[in-house]
Amino acid sequence: HGSEERFRNIISHNADGMLVVDLDGVVHFANPAAERLLGRSANDLIGRPFGFPIVAGESTEIDLLRADDPPLIAEMRAMHTRWEGAAAHVVSLRDVTERRRIERALRDSQLRLALALDAISEGLWDWNLTTGVVYLSPHWLAALGYKADTFPPDLSYRERLIHPADLPLAEASL
User: Fold this and answer.
1) How far is Cα 67 from Cα 40, in angstroms, rounded to an integer?
2) CA distance 118 to 126
3) Which among 77, 72, 86, 35 has a CA at the least distance from the CA of 54?
4) What angle do CA 143, 152, 107 make, to 5 degrees?
């Protein structure tokens, strides 16, 4: 009895929505996080169609349109299970709305930067000290007479651009 209570506690306090959906698509269980994500009570969900196609073993994103709340984007994963002696799916739902918003904002920012750099025709290079990755903009390379894919994305490009006699001084200045 104690292990069942611990299991119920874990499921009911999980941040991800968890549902049990039979092979006909009918919901048989929903934890509190699933209720919050779907904007419906467990009583309203249980015995009704889930409404999304389920592919066990795969991850997909679904749009959750909720009556009184803003829509959400959820990552859905499903696995085969058995529920009360019958084949079913355990479905987990994770809210990825904020992550997708941040990714979209990053893409928009990168596009604006690329457009601005193209508009001013200035060269740019950037060196990520943590990863060692180097970015050399097409304008920067063109100013030196090179094409965009001439050099690998690391510091080895310097060996082709800096005279061998000047390389130790260049290395020391970094």
Assistant:
1) 9
2) 16
3) 77
4) 80
Report how far residue 83's alpha carbon sits from residue 165's, in angstroms, rounded to the nearest whole number: 74
Q: pLDDT (tens digit, 0 to 9) for every residue of the chain, 174 residues total?
A: 789 899 889 999 999 999 999 999 999 999 999 999 999 999 999 999 999 999 999 999 999 998 888 999 999 999 999 999 999 999 999 999 999 999 999 999 999 988 888 888 788 888 898 998 988 888 888 888 888 888 888 888 888 788 889 988 888 887
In contact, 47 and 29? CB cutoff 8 Å: no
- Phi, psi angles (nearest 5°) of residue 160: -90, -20
103/155 Cα distance (integer angstroms):
28
CB 45 within 8 A of CB 35: yes
For the chain, the C-alpha Rg in angstroms (whole number) is 26
Structure-token match 């920067």, residue found: 140
Q: How far apart are CA 85 and CA 172, in angstroms?
A: 71
Q: Which residue has the tokens 């006699």?
A: 165
Cβ 92 vs Cβ 77: under 8 Å: yes
